[in-house]
Amino acid sequence: MRVSKRATSAIALSAAAALVASGCSSGDSNDDAAASKDGAITVHGVQPENPLVPSNTTETGGGKVIDWLFTGLVEYPNDGGAPRNALAESINTTDSKVFTIKIKKGTKFHDGTEVKSKNFVDAWNWAAYSPNGAQNGTFFSDILGFEDTYTTDPDGAEGPQKAPAPKSDKMSGLKVVDEQTFEVTLAAPTAVFPTKLGYSAFMPLPDVFFTQKPEEFGKKPVGNGPVKFVSWEDNVLIKLTRFDDYNLRDKMKVKDVDVKLYQDETAAYADLLANNLDFMEVVPTSALAGDKWKTDLGDRGLSTVTPSTALIAFPTYDKRFQNPKLRRAVSLSINRQEISDKIFFGTRKPADSWANPLTPGAKPGNCTACKFDPATAKTLLTEAGGFTGEMVFYYNSDSSHKDWMDAVAQQIKTNLGINARAEGVPTFAVFRQSINAHQMKGPYRAAWQQDYPDVENWVNPLYVTNGSSNDGLYSNKEVDALAKQASAAPSLEASHEAFSKAVELVDQDVPSIPIYFYGQQSGHSEKIKKLELNNVGELDITSVEL
Question: Taking the CB of residue 432, how many other CB atoms lie within 10 A of it?
Fold first, then answer.
């Protein structure tokens, strides 16, 4: 899953989608201001999967850090209000096909060089050139000339054939006009395109990036955001500090941010209670029973909802899971309400749609595969030829997933008679590496928290062939065609309606299983006097006051 607070759209999130900023009250005394100015905070994190290159980061461990290190063209207010320009001075179009983007003059990267229009164009071309292997490369597929820069392996990673060399390393639809202006021409009018521009794949890269190997840059990244990189000790700590030359709206109020990389949420929660950890985005499920987290944290506890969904994904590259009747049988055998009640004590809602209902364009209740119907599930399993052997459900054990994954496996075992069990992988980074290498031996825990607020983000990356986060390698040419039609619709309303047709086919194929919609219970230390959560529930570090 990938998240970002920075996106743009002509449509504001609805009030139901808005997150309420945390009301950690304090006075505005000079003492408080001084404490913030030179203060430091430690926040919960996990080891990033890859070096920190924006267009090659698709998960939240690295994604949150990238969102702090970089500033995009636009941003969302934390309360879910209308989007506003960040680095962009203006983004103009008359036909939703050609966009003229002007950036603010005088903003800097952390190495002191000025952010110019070429830093966007060069970064986007690098990501779209498939030999570079950027996981987010397909986010640029709307741009004219993308098909000349991005080719795919015709027989998969295991086959003998290799992807053909692209015709070009630059998209014809990108043009630098001057140092502050660039032009983007799309292959077709695309109403949703502006909505994407705040996602981290679209961040600018400094000139120094192109003089290094990407992995070298990613271990010592140079961004343009409110904090700059200091150091990274794998599985231990990422250190960040305020970028004093930052001159945009969201300036830091504290000086230093340590991202402590935990392998155990219980240990992190103990540190939070002891005031040794200043912010934890999601408390362990063990703290939910009887509202223990409320008793533990008091007014240091926060509760909200986020546009994110927990799923179980199928490795459709494994022949055992290629029959959609089998996948549907597994989904229908899961009692989501029971999991919500007994594991999460009502803090999560059973999923009944493919896109989170907080997302613009999402249609509630369109996941027919999400119903609990063990009788039909048994019939479908028989029609699929049954399942031989053990069905292992994998999850990362450095977060609180064991209880609900065990419950899913037990329900499948009870309701379908399949020998099912859940198995933990020690860390999220290792877990994601196996997923990206297409080496999963069974269904696995997944989650999606929207990168930008539009239903398109719940279809194209996840269910279109070669989508950036289509980790199970699901492919349906009819879904691809409908999604392409939806992406090129003349208005957001038409786009949303067309995407709903694609989702109907996804619902029949069941390449993954929506399980629950996230609720979020967070906590902070006593020394934090004020903070806000952004529109996807992450800590807005620029809001923190001590």
Answer: 22
